[in-house]
């Protein structure tokens, strides 16, 4: 009857309906519930808000501890609507469900009882604000949309080759210079922007009001060209670079053989730790090519000094050392998993992985890591990378993906949940972001929240027209169903269009840079 996304664990309908009456006496409703409802009715453009508050009963109740801290029970009967939960988080998600009910039912709601709780405790969305800057207002829009999808973890990718986005008082150049690039993939227009520390506090506080934790990412040792452009001593061979203009993996990364690199990293983390109180920081670790380290006398000396085998082990040592620094502050570290399968004996098992590639070939290694105690967050590029074209990941394949397929019950205990990243190399604005993220995020949130046995593609498809209407309340225009489920020919065309974008001059720059550094290394 009702269409809800994500679908709840259990819903039972009664025979009658409840109709809102004129308000007599407002029930006591917590402020965060009032705010959510006011915001909803502002979007919904009706005058019903106050009548509903008069019929709404909110109660924290230990009886519901079995539903966990995010579960809730929503019931509608002759007395009105009750939302009960063990914790406020659960009340908040009950209210999100209520918004979808009110949107469909107006002021006459069928009697019902919903009992609902999430499949995973980590339900994430990542915004890459490094490639393109998104304004504070736009970040808040993403947070609003996350809450509507019952997502609870915002991974904020803040540092990239193409732009440094967070004010660090000790290193003012990072934002003065590192936040701007002279041109982009799209043309010769400069782009830039950064968040002041006050704006970061504002974003974190807004996220918390939506029961969303914020995990900032300081991507090291790769993806650091914007920082090297400001402080060349951070790199091997003290390279003088510009903030990257185009996408593509860069070969200049932080030098792991200098004390000054660690000083910089620790200083940045000191300021980040003050701004982000949720106890986790993401250290990136992805796509750190080792061309420079293999040639750098300082990196090579460090490998010898520490008794390491090679540059790969040097990265494991580097990440573990920074992780140890964060652990002293009681902060947990997350990083991207290695792009290639590597033995990880030098990588501290307390570092959790965002798993971006799960294949039959990788599965045994991942299982070994889990056995050694490493926690995992499923971020598999298929189907969770929202920037990839619908020709590669259509709505159905995003929906049908079971994130923990192939893992045993014991292993699943160490899988915290799922995350969908929005990389923005080719996503310069909100309009494009919405076309990429929606409706796929609707499918993905159901893989994160709903119980596997309750999921069905046919049923999801039935809910799509409601979902589009609901999104449009919030001004979100996603890809049409025709675009999200392209025919074979359209799919091939969208893949070809996406692949064409990979042809660019950056690859050539990398080759030239490699040759220059090789000559320099020989002269040392
Ligand atoms: C990644 O896709 N660079 C983690
Ligand atoms: Zn070096």
The fraction of residues assigned to DSSP E strands is 15-25%
Q: Write down the overall mean pLDDT.
A: 94
Say how many strands there are: 17
**Low-pLDDT windows of residues:** none
The coarse overall form would be elongated
> What ligand species are in this complex?
acetamide, zinc ion
By DSSP (H or I, 4+ residues per run), the number of helices equals 22
Distance between the termini: 74 Å
Determine the structural class based on helices, strands and strand pairing. Answer: alpha/beta
> Largest beta sheet, briefly?
8 strands, parallel, barrel
Radius of gyration: 24 Å
Could you describe the 3D structure shown?
With 524 residues, the chain is of the alpha/beta class. Strand 8 and strand 9 form a beta hairpin. 44% of the residues are buried. The chain is 41% helix and 17% strand. It starts with 9 loop residues before the first strand and ends with a helix. The strands form 4 sheets. It has an 8-stranded parallel β-barrel, surrounded by 6 helices. A 5-stranded mixed β-sheet has the order 1-5-3-4-2. The radius of gyration is 24 Å and the shape is elongated. It is built from 22 helices and 17 strands. The structure holds acetamide and zinc ion. Acetamide binds next to loops.
Structure summary:
By secondary structure, this protein is α/β, with parallel strands linked by helices. The chain contains 22 helices and 17 strands.
Keywords:
524 residues, 8-stranded parallel beta barrel, single chain, 41% helix, elongated, binds zinc ion, 5-stranded mixed sheet, 17 strands, alpha/beta, binds acetamide
